[in-house]
Amino acid sequence: MLSFWAYCARSWDRFLQQSVGRYAAVTQVRYAKAKAFPGMPEKPKRPPSSWVLFLTERRNELKRQPEYEDLSLMEMSKRISEEWRGFDELEKLPYKDKYEESLGDYKRRIKEYQVNLSPEDKRALRRIKSDMRAYEKEHPKPKYPGNGYISFVKSCFRENPRSKDEDMKDFIRDCAQRWQNLDEETKLRLNEQASPLMRKYREELREWKDKYEAWRSDASSN
């Protein structure tokens, strides 16, 4: 069962449909894990979702417009997310079609990858995964501190503690609705308060990734 704060974090991910900054940081670590060790076949990467395709396209478009130059990454993500939620199925269809096409190609390539793995490759991958779990247990990744929304949910919980018998989904849904109804100034203030922790988290995650890459390189040579 998910802990309360883990549930909050997952709820926020769904609510904002992935914050770009966090998505980029986590994707870097996942990509580091997916990359092949020297001498090993490279595992195909799963394609980005239709939402991420749209997000990347719109973000690049907005960056070229002078009126959006000073917009923070979070605010830009929020605006793009609101635009996506306002789309009907017909407007989302080109991105969904592109994703489905990429997904079909990915499934074909991942099947070929698995078929072409030699017994030695499979044994090496099992050893790598085992070593990786041991490494991450000994060197845990930095914990995601939460953004303005998570801080808001924590304050809601302090104001109205929930008993074990109460429905957590209803509570989170109520918090999300209250967050949506907040004025932009309050949201901005909460996000700014969380910014130093997020910067520290990204720096620590980058350091962890560098150390992980160094370990991965050493492990591949043994």
TrEMBL record:
Could you name the Gene Ontology cellular component terms for this entry?
Answer: nucleus
Q: Please give the Gene Ontology molecular function terms for this protein.
A: DNA binding
Which GO terms of type biological process are on file?
regulation of transcription by RNA polymerase II
Is Hydrolase one of the keywords UniProt gives this record? no
Is the keyword Chaperone assigned to this protein? Answer: no
Determine the domain of life of the protein's source. Answer: Eukaryota
Q: What Pfam families has UniProt attached to this entry? A: HMG_box_2
UniProt keyword terms in alphabetical order: DNA-binding
Residues of the HMG box domain: 44-114, 142-209
InterPro entries in UniProt = HMG_box_dom, HMG_box_dom_sf, HMGB
The name on file for this protein is: HMG box domain-containing protein
